[in-house]
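A.,

Following up on our hallway conversation. C-alpha cells first:
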C-alpha cells in the first residue's frame, strides 16, 4: 500500500470520517479516494490539499502529528519547487544525474515515488541494474516505495545479489 495513501486513510479514519463523507466534503468521488487511499492511484497535490483542508477544520485535525505529516507530505512530495518534485522531473526526463550525486532520504524517495509515471519507472529499473552506486541505491529506494508491489521483487533480488547496494540502501 502506498505510504501517503495509507496515511491519508488513517488521518481520515482518526477524524471519524467515512470515505463517503470525505468524498462529499472534498468533491472527489468515493471510488477515486478509495483508490488513492489503497495506493492504486498516485496521490496528487489536490488530494493532499483537500485532506489537509478538511482534517484541519472544525477540530477534526486536532492531532498535530497527523496534520504535520500531511502538510509535510504535501510540501515535500508534491510541490514542483521541492527536491522531490525536481527529482521526479529529472527522472521523467531520463536524466540520472541528480539521483547520482547524493543518496536521497526515505521521505524524498517516497515523494518521488508518489508522482513518477510509467516511463520514469522504466528508467529507474534500468538505473537500479546498470547505474553507478549512488544512482542504483536511489533508484532502488524509489522503486521500493511505488504504489503496489509491482517492483518490490526487482528491488529484493537486486539487494540480495549486490552487497554494496544492500549496504548503501540499509
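Then the amino acids I'd put at each of the 170 positions:
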Amino acid at each position: 500500500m502506498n505510504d501517503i495513501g495509507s496515511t491519508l486513510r488513517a488521518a481520515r479514519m482518526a477524524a471519524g470520517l467515512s470515505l463517503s463523507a470525505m468524498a462529499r466534503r472534498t468533491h472527489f468521488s468515493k471510488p477515486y479516494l478509495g483508490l488513492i487511499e489503497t495506493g492504486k492511484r498516485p496521490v496528487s497535490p489536490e488530494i493532499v490539499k483537500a485532506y489537509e483542508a478538511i482534517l484541519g477544520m472544525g477540530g477534526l485535525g486536532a492531532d498535530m502529528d497527523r496534520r504535520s505529516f500531511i502538510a509535510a507530505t504535501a510540501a515535500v512530495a508534491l510541490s514542483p519547487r521541492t527536491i522531490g518534485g525536481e527529482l521526479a522531473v529529472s527522472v521523467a526526463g531520463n536524466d540520472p544525474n541528480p539521483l547520482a550525486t547524493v543518496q536521497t532520504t526515505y521521505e524524498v524517495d517516497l515523494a518521488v515515488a508518489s508522482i513518477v509515471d510509467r516511463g520514469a519507472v522504466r528508467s529507474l529499473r534500468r538505473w537500479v541494474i546498470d547505474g553507478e552506486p549512488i544512482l542504483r541505491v536511489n533508484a532502488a529506494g524509489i522503486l521500493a516505495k511505488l504504489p503496489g508491489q509491482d517492483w518490490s521483487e526487482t528491488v529484493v533480488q537486486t539487494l540480495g545479489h549486490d552487497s554494496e547496494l544492500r549496504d548503501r540502501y540499509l
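The two ends are 21 Å apart (CA to CA). Curious whether your intuition agrees with the design.

B.
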